[in-house]
Structures are given as structure tokens and as C-alpha cells.
Design brief:
Structural class: mainly beta
Oligomer: single chain
Keywords: Chaperone, Cytoplasm, Nickel insertion
Helix content: under 10%
Protein name: Urease accessory protein UreD
Subunit structure: UreD, UreF and UreG form a complex that acts as a GTP-hydrolysis-dependent molecular chaperone, activating the urease apoprotein by helping to assemble the nickel containing metallocenter of UreC. The UreE protein probably delivers the nickel.
Number of domains: 1
Subcellular location: Cytoplasm
Largest sheet: 11 strands, mixed
Function: Required for maturation of urease via the functional incorporation of the urease nickel metallocenter.
Length: 263
Amino acid sequence: MTSATPLTPAGVRASARVHAVADGRGGTALPLLAGEGPLALRRTRGTAAEAGVMLVGAMSAPLGGDHLTVEATAGPGARLALASAAATLALPGRGGEPARYDVLLTLEDGAAVRWLPEPLVSVRGSDLRVRTRVHLAPTARLLLREEQVLGRCGEAPGLLRSRLTATRGGRPLLDQELTCGPGAPGGWDGPAGLAGHRALGQLLVVDPAFAQAPPSAGVLGEFAAVTPLAGPAVLVTALAPDALRLRELLDEAARTYVPSARA
């Protein structure tokens, strides 16, 4: 369902909301599926137990001054797969204001969520602040992928500020922040930063199974690091020359560290 979107002098404010619940028959129902403006939602075919939702861009966004919010809640025992139909382009606005893109995921007891959007492209002249927050119950499972591309082909990037935080059972699990592009602190693209790479991403896997068999720290290829977290979780961070190679690295990580993928 799509409703009218408030348009202010500063830009568009729009939200998309998803609520998934176990249907009592081994599947997952979606009693709430609502999007506004550029955030259109479509139900897709999932597995027998999992509901699939696709985020479809209905208009160009986010532009400078826009504030977009995606909220998804998975109730006890629900299984939800969230994806996007295409890459998200952060575009400059007329007034030079920053844009905001917030994602809030809430996973209750026994829930499982996969948040696998297509890459975010930081276009030259844009200014985007991305905030992703995840709240997990102790028995919930999560697979989260973030991919960011600095500029289109042959183009300098915009300013991108991204923060990912996760709590499990009310306790901090991860708090990570990155700023890159014009105006970022010095050295972001140097040897101690991105080292000239144009694509960066991370894969966060949270699974109670790791309590019995925690992953080990390591590397995947030359520019991907595997970091076990203080909880049943692992974080894989990767750099790559382009979006294709980045996806290959993160797909390899998913095959290695997602328990269901190894089964």
C-alpha cells in the first residue's frame, strides 16, 4: 500500500513499514506492509516458512533534504526476507542539505530476518547520512548485508556517513561508524583507510548456534576481514575495486558463516 508523501521545503519525508508474524501453520504472515512515496513495498515469493518483501524505488531518492525510513518487525517465530529491487542512488539536492536514510529492524524471540538490499551508490555532490539500528531478542537470527559504492563509473563520490548499531537482549553487540568522501576526516582514502578502493561492505551474521561453535578471526582474500563479536555473531568487512567483486566476497562469506547455508 502506498500513501501520499509529505513534501516539505527541505525535501521528502517517507517511510516503509513491515510487520511479520508466524501464522501458526509453519509460515509467516504480513499483517502490515505499507510504503510511501519512493518507498514502495511488494510481497515476493518466499520459502514455506519465510515471507519475502521487495523494496521498490518509486521515484528518485534520496536527494538532499530527504528523510527516508524503513522499519521492519519480526514477531516471535516469524521469518522475513527483505531485499531491494535495484541500487539506491544518493543524489545531490538543490539546497545542499544532507539526506537521511534510517533502517530499524526489530527481531523478537525465535525470529529470523535477512536484510539484503542492493548497493548504495554515493553520487558526486551528494551528502547522505545512513543509520541502521538492529534490536534482537537472544534467540533471534539475523543476516545483514551492506554494500556502498563511492561514485558512479569514472565519478568522484559524494559525502557518505554510515553507522550500524546492533543490540542483543538489550546489550550492545556492535557499534560501527564510517565516513568517506569530500569533507570526511583526512586519510579516509589512504593506506590506512580504503586504500583507493571504490566499493566497501559488511556482512553481519547473528545466530545462537555460534554460542557452541564460535567462528574464528581470519581473512577472506586480500581485503576482507572476519571478526567474531562478543556474542553469538560475526562481522565480515570487505573492500573491493567495484560492486561486482564486493558482492562475490560477501557471498563467499555468507556461504561460510551462515549456519543454514553450510547445512
